[in-house]
Amino acid sequence: MTGWREELRASVRGEVIFDAPMAQRTSLRVGGPCDALFRPADAEDLAGALRLLRGAGVPWLAIGGGANTLVGDRGIRGCVVRIGPEFAPEQVEPVEGGALVTLPAGASNQRVVGVMREEGLWGAEFLSGIPGSAGGAATMNAGTKMGEMKDVMDAVEVATPEGARWIPAAELRYAYRTSHLPEGAVITRVRIRLKRGTPSELASAAERMEKDRDYRKRTQPLTLPNCGSVFRNPEGDFAGRLIEVCGLKGRRIGGASWSEVHANFIVNLGGATARDVRALIELAQAQVKGKFNVQLEPEVRFVGEF
Ligand SMILES: Cc1cc2nc3c(=O)[nH]c(=O)nc-3n(C[C@H](O)[C@H](O)[C@H](O)COP(=O)(O)OP(=O)(O)OC[C@H]3O[C@@H](n4cnc5c(N)ncnc54)[C@H](O)[C@@H]3O)c2cc1C
């Protein structure tokens, strides 16, 4: 694996940062550095870099806003690819009843909401309170009771060492907070289908978004670093309810704690490590399994070395 850093730096047009700290690039603010953080200039730049990495036997993974990612304290070996919001231009293509909106994977969910407002469209209101990027949302099938990405997804453009191609949403086998991307594929663009709104439809969409954001302010610990819901909700129940009944609300390990405000959130009180966060996760899993015989599955994605 030696020498690949210099080759990467010399061969790409985008930005490369070596030994880039990941804590500041995730919403939980924990985790060590990755060997290289690469922000490709465009699709060709990315495909060339992926070919180089594959040839050198260097692993890579994509990250968006880092709002659903727990990076280990020893960091990530290999290259982290981050698609910026300027990677590709936005496109709005009118279709029957609405529009197909294409955004770079690095566009924020807030930008999706901005496009809806500017273009008189609706249908992705659920994104307004969800942090992160369009690429992360498309990967995670992000959503709320109002809806989820699979309801609006048309297709994703992915890059692999072979180049770029579009994959229709139906092939991503969307399910609750998951999708199935080809191994090593980096989403570069996301295309969603939105509806053209009448003034009253748009007003009611705006109202739904405002209510959701208000609700989150009241029920989520938004003033402390966190990664949203730590566990997926088990069939017919809520992970937060099970954690609360186990008496874990407010339980602290090192600099991390189960939130007092929302039982399925872990907060970084300052100086938390990934090890602290993982210990809290394992504690909840053990207690919930012991008390309810339910195996809680993390929604947050673990990456790197712990
Ligand atoms: C306060 C708070 C509230 C939240 N509320 C919700 C909620 O209501 N509903 C919900 O669903 N989620 C929620 N989340 C979780 C999170 O916001 C979503 O999962 C979001 O979609 C993650 O996007 P991201 O860009 O930050 O993804 P990241 O954390 O960067 O990545 C998540 C996964 O997607 C992959 N990925 C990211 N970008 C790409 C790409 N371009 N190509 C290939 N793979 C990629 C990563 O490898 C990783 O496996 C919340 C989080 C926080 C902090």
What key attributes describe this structure?
306 residues; alpha+beta; six-stranded antiparallel sheet; binds flavin-adenine dinucleotide
List the helices and strands and how they pair.
Blueprint: H1 4-11, E1 15-21, E2 33-39, H2 43-56, E3 60-62, E4 69-71, E5 76-81, E6 91-95, E7 98-104, H3 109-119, E8 121-122, H4 134-140, E9 143-144, E10 147-148, H5 149-152, E11 153-160, E12 163-168, E13 186-196, H6 199-219, H7 239-245, E14 252-253, E15 256-258, E16 266-268, H8 274-292, E17 301-303
Parallel strand pairs: 2-5, 3-5, 4-17
Antiparallel strand pairs: 1-2, 6-7, 7-13, 8-13, 9-10, 11-12, 11-13, 14-15, 15-16
Helix pairs in contact: 1-2
Flavin-adenine dinucleotide is lined by residues 27, 61-69, 83, 105, 130-133, 135-137, 139-140, 142-144, 177, 186-187, 220, 222, 226-228, 301.
Short description:
This protein is of the alpha+beta class and 306 residues long. Helices cover 30% and strands 26% of the residues.
Explain what this protein looks like in three dimensions:
This protein is an alpha+beta fold and 306 residues long. Helix content is 30%, strand content 26%. The strands form five sheets. Strands 6, 7, 8, 11, 12 and 13 form a six-stranded antiparallel beta sheet that branches. Strands 1-2-5-3 form a four-stranded mixed beta sheet, covered by helices on one side. The protein has a three-stranded antiparallel beta sheet with strand order 14-15-16. Flavin-adenine dinucleotide binds next to strand 3, helix 4, strand 9 and strand 13.
